Amino acid sequence: MSVPASANELQNAARSRSLQTKGLMLGLIIVIAIAGAFILRQRFVGGSAGPTIGEITELAKTTPPGDRAEWLRLARATLTAEKVMPLTDPQEPINNRGEASRVELGYQLFFDPILSGDKTTSCASCHHPDHWMADGLRKGVGLGGRGYGAQRAGTGQELKRNTPSIFNVAYNPVQFWDGRVGSLEEQALVPLFAEDEMHQTSVDGLVRRLRAIPTYRELFAKAFGFNSKKEGEEINLQNIARALAAFERKLNITDTNYDLFVRGQDDKLTTGQLRGMVVFFGQGQCAVCHTPPHFHDAVLSSIGVTKSPEKGAPLDDDPGFGAVIRKRDGFGMFKTPGLRNVSRTGPYMHNGAFNTLEEIVEFYNDGGGRGRGLNVYSQDTKVAKLDLNDRQKKDLVDFMKSLDSLAPPPIVPKQVPSGLPVVGK
Ligand code: HEC
Ligand code: HEC
């Protein structure tokens, strides 16, 4: 609605007596709309009471570390200043609404090695509940790998990158460290056919394999069989991907001490974590990219990650997004990973080069790769020297631990429809 047009209408209404009441009504609606917009603006664009993040950072400098009441106040003020919202349910694509039958099928497929060429590897070989849906390895171990998690070390082909946890992937706008794939449906087919991962060589072969298993015929019919004419017809590549994605969309970390605090429970964070929250949003600048509620910003950037964590280590040479767009501009750019559960899913970074959160905080405190004197082509300017003291560094790590899930990971099925052995059951 635009004001000049409405003013016109008001004039017309004045000319004609019969239109006068309508005009008045319209005027009233405009007044209410403008007042409403003003109130909303006050709420969301600031202007409301409460200190800014800069003011909070200043106040923090003079607040005694043990003054819990004051840290509570500052932490709450931080959430207000940053307009932090609670988590909402993830969006589901219109053609894959996450019906229980699909989620159940996806769960079975996820743990079933039948999906891999040589029937040894399931998605869970690398994304395992014992490792919070990652593998605990520096880099993933693919073809030829045996077992799961640490057992896989040295057993097969080392992959190019670290295996991310697939908790909360439903909230990723793009998938993979370099963001090369959009949807989870699309993503699921990549490891299936990747030569160095599950190495499935034939779509027909895979479909035939699954159709030969009565339990899969049943599960697919339940999940997808609306008007199929032939038994097993619903078993196709698209539906395999949909079921896997439907299962993954249910893997969400919604309850952490941080979330409970956001929802009002003051006692959920230690005083150190309260102080850490203030650093995370303030002096540390972390929330600029690791933005709540997902603790990522849905974009890719370069922070100048090195080949190993110590000062003086050389720059990592993975081109990341640069290879996706085939431009130097994207060199070294990776997706900001969400930080829910982060304390449990090391090693860290796209190359798994960092083993602890302490090492990571040290790296950021130095100003990332560029801050450590490396020639980083496109490092984000938000990563710069931080001047944190030892307590602040420790508090930052403690705060990240408040993002750990309070709920257990999914249960490993005792058996899967193919009858093949399930890893780590
Ligand atoms: C051999 C180990 C391995 C197997 C098996 C495997 N993955 Fe992965 N997964 C990885 C690695 C490594 C990456 C990161 C690759 C990259 O970013 O380039 C990844 C990335 C992902 C991502 C993107 C997560 C993110 O935050 O960007 C999803 C989703 C995923 N895998 C799901 C699956 C599914 C579903 C299966 C089974 C069909 C599977 N994976 C099988 C190792 C594996
Ligand atoms: C400019 C955006 C940006 C800022 C600011 C930023 N990060 Fe990051 N963070 C990233 C990106 C991008 C990665 C992945 C980099 C890679 O793998 O090459 C990352 C990775 C991480 C990881 C590893 C997560 C994992 O699963 O491997 C942690 C932990 C982390 N950041 C914490 C922090 C903290 C703490 C701060 C504040 C001191 C911070 N970040 C500031 C963008 C940022």
Class from helix and strand fractions: mainly alpha
Integer-rounded radius of gyration: 26 Å
The helix/strand series, from N terminus to C terminus, equals HHHHHHHHHHHHEHEHHH
Integer tally of domains: 3
Proper CATH architecture of the largest domain? Orthogonal Bundle
Task: Specify the biggest β-sheet.
Answer: 2 strands, antiparallel
What level of helicity do the residues show?
Answer: 25-40%
Q: Mean of the pLDDT scores?
A: 91
Question: How does the SSE layout of this entry go?
Answer:
Blueprint: H1 3-15, H2 20-44, H3 53-61, H4 68-81, H5 100-111, H6 123-126, H7 184-193, H8 203-211, H9 214-224, H10 237-248, H11 257-262, H12 271-281, E1 300-301, H13 321-325, E2 334-335, H14 357-365, H15 368-371, H16 390-401
Antiparallel strand pairs: 1-2
Helix pairs in contact: 1-2, 3-4, 3-12, 4-12, 5-9, 5-10, 7-10, 12-16, 14-16
This protein binds heme C (2 copies).
One heme C is lined by residues 284-286, 288-290, 301, 303, 305, 334, 336-337, 339, 342, 345, 348-350, 357, 360-361, 364, 380, 382-383, 396.
